[in-house]
């Protein structure tokens, strides 16, 4: 008789939830489908020719160490270079405050792992990054969503009154995934004030910050923090190479020490060769040069998608106008369901991510996330036309 695996699963495993994005990608993987679902950087931004020479140089000059196991904390040179970049942006950080992770997704997972007990609450946005919600749920946390920053204090006070004081607030202040919106200076100061007054931590997730196309750059909340409450997450996945899976955590040394122990039981160390190549790439000044090309390309792609929305979308559909990042968020009139729209859209061979997946309370049913960085101009326009046609069919059926 076949075993029932449910009898063997841990409570953590039973609490894990599948990624709606990954599931949608598998459905929308047909070549005829124009997919705006994935958060894929554009392959045109990958510095392949530069990397050929750098990889050869790393093999010739540090091959034995670059192909060996490495320290859990990460490549020392890479940590120093990352610390230097943040220091130039007003953050008080040294290499001792930097832990290299296998993507910022692991950074979220490790942070949740060391702070969360089953039943602990976390305050996050409505909507918020699905990968973070998955990590929170996998450790049996209870994410509590707020629609706007002004709701933060009342939510925290209510949770404390219920005996459910949050462990931390999770925020994506720059070009948020999925909404694309950015917190202004006053919002950042307000959130910092709340976490300080109510003795909370703040997890500042910042994968898109450097992809600013226009508007005024805002200071990182880590740089505004004078109380060691902010844990800052970063990654090269959106600005350099997603395939290298290099991310990092910047935090006080006491927290980094705990994270190192947690990482040792996860993967021992992030791929060493990838780190060595990334360090050499940064050291040569090539990262900044390529970043400017990436920003110019993505600005053009954002502008094109916005123009297509203006041209083709039915009346009553609204969308965000992000100052950077990879995404914009679309909202249909109340009462319409993006899950229903997805089925119609697939018949039109166009895909997106349903916005409900980013809402920890199951709201946002009339919303969807669109990626503008991946498709070329022709397919973007055709895809928006198909989506508009699908929305028309749903509204007028």
Report what the structure shows.
The protein has 397 residues and is α/β, with parallel strands linked by helices. The chain has two domains: 5-46 and 288-395, Aspartate Aminotransferase, domain 1 (Alpha-Beta Complex), CATH 3.90.1150; 68-284, Type I PLP-dependent aspartate aminotransferase-like (Major domain) (Aspartate Aminotransferase, domain 2, 3-Layer(aba) Sandwich), CATH 3.40.640.10. 44% of the residues lie in helices and 13% in strands. The protein contains 14 helices and 13 strands. It has helices spanning 11-15, 20-27, 48-66, 76-87, 103-115, 130-138, 152-161, 185-197, 221-224, 253-264, 272-283, 286-312, 338-347, 377-395; strands at 34-35, 98-102, 121-125, 142-146, 168-171, 201-205, 230-235, 246-250, 318-319, 327-331, 350-351, 353-354, 367-371. The strands form three sheets. It has a seven-stranded mixed β-sheet, sandwiched between helices. α5 (103-115) packs across α10 (253-264) and α13 packs across α14 (377-395). The termini are far apart. The model has no long low-confidence stretch (mean pLDDT 95).
